Amino acid sequence: MKIIKSKIFRIIVALFILGFVLGIILFYIIGESDQVTYYFSNIKNNNQSNELLLSFIYNFKYLIIIWICGIVIFLSFIIPFLIVFRGILNGFLFISIIHLFHLKGLLISFILWFPLILIYESIYIFLSYYSLNFSIRTFNILKSNKDINLRSYIKNYFYQFSIFFLLIIFNSLFETFITSNILRYVL
Fold first, then answer.
1. What's the number of domains the chain is made of?
2. How far is the C-alpha of 37 from the C-alpha of 100, rounded, in Å?
3. pLDDT (tens digit, 9 = 90+) per residue, 4-50?
4. How far, in Å, CA of 127 to CA of 64, rounded?
5. HSE toward the beta carbon, residue 59, CA cutoff 13 A
């Protein structure tokens, strides 16, 4: 695939992995968080409507921030920081679950990570690639004073956003109704 071989994509993935490692290190510096226990108490209490809304809002927030940063060229430098931040959150979550549930934490982490978090993070990594690529192309077009069809240029970027938006909705539904039910039996 052309995207995976691109330098921008490899840098984004490297930043996510760096953030993941920093999240694990941060756990050992700070200690565990109450957010992890709150998440699992929601699952135990079977509060699915609240879970769905929180999951969608939380993930849509990142989606829209990354997408807007791609449109506004001078904000595109924020995207790598968001990817590192997402890596830190996931690394911290991963090690917190293992610390909280010990050996059972490995099973819980596996249930959460495959496919749930991998899909979310893939969405953010690919959207970051498209956003940074869009910003760079827009900057180069503005710098060279080329004429473009702005309508089709933005339309393609919006289509990409729409696909990622649908994936976020699907993944939020999957998280709320399937993953939480599996986790409820494990907990």
1. 1
2. 8
3. 788 999 999 999 999 999 999 998 888 766 666 666 676 667 666 67
4. 10
5. 27
Q: Give the CA angle between residues 124, 38, 20 to the nearest 5°.
A: 35
Domain range for 68 is 2-186
Residue with the two structure tokens 């827009």: 138
Contacts within 8 Å (CB) and 24+ apart, 68-77:
69/131, 69/135, 70/127, 70/130, 70/131, 70/132, 70/134, 70/135, 70/157, 71/131, 71/134, 71/135, 71/157, 73/135, 73/138, 73/139, 73/142, 76/131, 76/132, 76/135, 76/136
pTM over 0.70? The answer is: yes
Residue with tokens 């924020």: 78
